[in-house]
UniProtKB/TrEMBL annotation:
PANTHER family: 6-PHOSPHOGLUCONOLACTONASE. Keywords: Hydrolase. InterPro entries: 6-phosphogluconolactonase_DevB (IPR005900), 6PGL (IPR039104), Glc/Gal-6P_isomerase (IPR006148), NagB/RpiA_transferase-like (IPR037171). GO terms for molecular function: 6-phosphogluconolactonase activity. This is 6-phosphogluconolactonase. It catalyses: 6-phospho-D-glucono-1,5-lactone + H2O = 6-phospho-D-gluconate + H(+). Hydrolysis of 6-phosphogluconolactone to 6-phosphogluconate. Its EC number is 3.1.1.31.
Amino acid sequence: MSTPQLVVHHDKELMAQAAAARLITKIVDAQASRGYASVVLTGGRNGNGLLAALAAAPARDAIDWGRLDLWWGDERFLPEGDAERNVTQAREALLDSVPLDPKRVHAMPASDGPWGADVDAAAASYAEELARAAGPENHGAVPTFDVLMLGVGPDTHVASLFPELPAVRETERTVVGVRGAPKPPPTRVTLTLPAIRAAREVWLLAAGEDKAGAAAIALSGAGEIQAPAAGAAGRSRTLWLLDAAAASRLPRSLYPPASP
Ligand SMILES: O=C1O[C@H](COP(=O)(O)O)[C@@H](O)[C@H](O)[C@H]1O
């Protein structure tokens, strides 16, 4: 696993714009070298802010939207079209305004889908969808995502991995159902830490004063069961994208960087 790197922007608007620019470059580079790119989206305010910034960026037209696979890190297990579903919010922020290939948009199941209210069956079906997309080098688990984004919650949760709940302890399955989440809605579907760690790059997004405590805890050596954000890392890069407010309680040894 890679060691976290930090980039701190002045405010959350700038953070969203800079992260969107970074994502455009990543996608364009992956498409140039491999023919397609694979990105995992996050829900939450910071993730949706990034998507809105991407929608407003003229350079978005550099992306070949038809050769982009989109997955989700987690979903609120609600009916299709519910305004609180992460996919609904992503569609509003960006996806409805770009020419994606619908077959490459892998939304997580809804609570009124083929598995009804059975969140475990819904999670298992998403795991199967991921496994079908994985290549032989991925050992049948999940594709090697180019970038996997995670909004960091004020309690250090990422995706729907909440402190101390069973999902954050999962070591075998790639996707699990969550019940009793402390943030509504209580029932969710989430990638697990093993699936997250299969990504080439993991980007953690934290903007706003309410994220300052979470960033400080996760980056100060906390365990992943107590602070799930501490366990999120990419194979080749782990990037924390913060604004100054979210970085305000980081230990001096981490930020600002020591001068030579
Ligand atoms: O519920 C969720 O919350 C987190 C963080 O959201 P934020 O609004 O505090 O930024 C998000 O990462 C996750 O995908 C989402 O389902």
